[in-house]
Amino acid sequence: MNDTVIEVHDLVKAFGDFTAVDHVSFSVQRGEVVGYLGPNGSGKTTTMRMLLGLLRPTSGTAQVLGFDVARQAERLRPLVGYMSQKFALYEDLTVRENLVFYAGVYGLRPRAYRPRVKAVLELVGLAGRAGDLARVLAGGWRQRLALGIALVHEPQLLFLDEPTSGVDPEARRAFWDMIYTLAEGGATVFVSTHYMDEAEHCGRLGIMNRGKLLALGAPSALKREVVPGQAWEVVAEPLVAALDALTAAPGVRYAGLLGDHLHVITQPGVHTPEVLAAVLRGAGLAGATVESADITLEDVFTELATRRPAVTAA
Hints:
Strand content: 25-35%
CATH architecture of the largest domain: 3-Layer(aba) Sandwich
CATH superfamily of the largest domain: P-loop containing nucleotide triphosphate hydrolases
Largest sheet: 7 strands, mixed
CATH class of the largest domain: Alpha Beta
CATH topology of the largest domain: Rossmann fold
Distance between the termini: 26 Å
């Protein structure tokens, strides 16, 4: 069995003079949870819709589960699940009725869908709300139902387009628990997000900006290999004066406000906490503290967006 479930080469989608996806290439292996991280408008949804056969590429090729997305989309669709940003629920149907309806759309007969609907209700945590009308569900529960609908026909590959947008942090954590339950069961998941903390959950992560895939790799590898240097947490009063002092200091690559402290990136091997503290004392900030910190995915994105035009594997 071929373990490559998505294979993309030089994929381009242009809308007139605007290029939404610009020569993107990558592959996804069976059983992976692969994230697609980027701001709104970076090309994530357009890429996903091409892989589903909903948009025809301008150029380049993409195969999903062995099918060419430009020529064999109808054969592909029964094998994949898709949860879009604006998923459609039938508000006057119950949770169970929504699942039964979509099971029928996918061609499942009652003998097949009855046990499957029951299993999906358990999987997404809606067994106790199966009789509730969809319109009374709060945001996190609606997301669970939308995921159940995408799963009801037992797809081999699941596409989730910003599935937790607009829900509270607790619901987001629960949703990611479900994603990993699916992956442990053998499903392959391709999920887009603009949340940096969510991206940490992915086995591999593609970073998109302005239609380009800037890097693809494990989050830990991206942080280790993309951002050269050391990160620091600086506490000082006033913060703006500390920011000005560090931004002007030799060897400081980046300094920015992060809540009640500064997040600082320095060139490798240049600074120690004592040296940075001395810089701050020189600016009249004698009480400042400097501690080692972790490189973040936001650091990775900033580094890539400002200096790298092409994909980096990590």
